[in-house]
Specification:
Length: about 475
């Protein structure tokens, strides 16, 4: 097992050696979707990041229980249900199924359990009762609120000073509150809204309480990793800490808080009003699941990603280069070939992943290996054993990243691609390598790779 794996912790803004609470057991929770509309590429950016995280933890020998909630009752859901004139249950089920289908296509499969808020009303009510009993919550007109002033550590994750706290769009105007920064745990039912019975009257859970009630149900009062987008630090994750630590009396609620960065579109925050809202379904259908996934892991999970047409095109080219390299290695092997060590590249890959899941640096190690083999080809052949080790390294990497590197297929090639390949072959014969490389890049951008053979060439397409 890797013992030097370091994870960035937003709680103290430091990388810390990962030491889970229960030896080889790693409990991990990530905030899930609110299924009121088609999930967008920002949702899937976060999902891919934590999928890779869970995959690597398992690769390192940890038994990972990866829990994700589904906020299947919410103001946005009620509003969308009315606008579309369909029952809220039907609405949430439709978009949750869409989320699952796109996740399947994106090879997001590390989640152990999806937990819907409406399936855990009993646990939510129980945690609210505990908070009221301990004096951290109060009831007013059928709604229940958390009294932020009673929790002295409020703001420790986002480094907010309660006395100087700026107003947030997430702070609701509510005359029932003792203080504007108090937040709702239980919302009293309004006319024609979904509701559940409670000791305080009919109503439904607030946004924050579902997460802590759900994680307490599956993990207990404390656990190892809490993920989510960086914009959830305040007020959502701050509220979770306040609820959980006030309820249980145990600190810290979570040991490690590795937050994922924003996904921008052409330099702007994604928004329907700006016309730059892209659904996950649209993305995988237009550009392919592997290309989008590779684009995401080509940046560090904590960094801001600016999605553009160029960035997805470059990801497609880079992924094609790795796959082309894998094909090259398969064809270089020979029983009498040279023994080549790939250990140094694999070590660089592991060191990168151990350094807070540094996927760009890990990908760089793969390209280093590819460049090394490129320098050898076609001058020498490598041993069968060396080829096996190189391909095993790529297979390990693809299992961690969730992107296929070693699979390719020969398909019916369009005539214009064949013409490009012939033109490239002509440039090669003329030793015009710059023009030949330019044509190769053009083919890669259209999803086709070319392999030079002793006589002629071979074209493959991948997706």
């Amino acid at each position: 097992m890797t013992i030097m794996l370091k994870i960035y912790n937003s709680l103290n803004n430091k990388k810390e050696i990962f030491r889970p609470r229960k030896s080889k057991q790693a409990d991990m929770f990530v905030c899930g979707i609110t299924p009121y509309d088609s999930p967008h590429i920002g949702n899937f950016r976060v999902a891919i990041n934590y999928d890779v995280m869970a995959r690597y933890l398992r690769h390192c020998g940890y038994n990972v229980f990866y829990l994700q909630n589904v906020t299947d009752i919410d103001d946005k859901i009620i509003k969308a249900s009315r606008e579309k004139n369909i029952p809220w249950q039907e609405l949430t089920e439709y978009y949750f199924k869409e989320h699952l289908e796109v996740s399947r296509r994106l090879n997001i499969k590390s989640i152990s359990k999806y937990a819907k808020a409406t399936k855990h009303i009993k646990e939510i009510i129980a945690q609210i009762k505990t908070l009221m009993k301990k004096g951290y919550a109060y009831e007013k007109n059928g709604s229940v609120y958390f009294e932020v002033g009673k929790f002295k550590d409020y703001g420790k994750l986002s480094r907010q000073n309660l006395a100087k706290l700026h107003k947030s769009t997430r702070l609701e105007e509510d005359a029932n509150k003792k203080h504007p920064y108090d937040f709702v745990l239980w919302k009293a039912a309004k006319q024609d809204e979904p509701f559940w019975r409670s000791p305080w009257g009919d109503g439904r859970p607030g946004w924050h309480i579902e997460d802590t009630a759900i994680t307490e149900r599956f993990f207990g009062a404390q656990y190892d990793i809490h993920g989510g987008a960086t914009e959830l630090k305040f007020p959502h994750h701050e509220a979770e800490i306040a609820q959980a630590e006030s309820s249980s009396g145990k600190k810290p609620f979570v040991k490690y808080w590795p937050h994922a960065g924003l996904l921008m579109v052409n330099g702007e925050k994604m928004s329907k009003s700006l016309g730059n809202f892209i659904t996950g379904k649209e993305m995988v259908e237009k550009y392919g699941a592997d290309n989008f996934r590779f684009m995401i892991i080509s940046s560090h999970y904590r960094s801001i990603i600016n999605y553009t047409e160029n960035s997805i095109a470059q990801a497609k080219i880079n992924l094609g280069k790795i796959r082309n390299g894998a094909d090259m290695i398969k064809k270089m092997k020979n029983k009498t070939g040279k023994n080549i060590s790939v250990g140094k590249f694999e070590k660089k890959f592991t060191l990168a992943m151990d350094d807070d899941f540094n996927t760009p640096a890990a990908i760089s190690a793969i390209f280093e290996m590819m460049n090394y083999f490129n320098q050898l080809n076609p001058k020498i052949e490598i041993s069968v054993e060396s080829a096996k080790k190189a391909l095993a390294f790529l297979k390990k990497a693809e299992n961690i990243f969730g992107v296929s590197f070693t699979a390719s297929r020969v398909a019916k090639i369009p005539e214009h691609i064949i013409k490009l390949a012939r033109e490239r072959e002509k440039r090669r014969q003329e030793n015009n390598w710059a023009e030949a490389d330019k044509i190769r890049e053009e083919m890669l951008q259209e999803g086709y790779a070319i392999k030079d053979l002793k006589k002629g060439f071979e074209i493959t397409t991948r997706e």
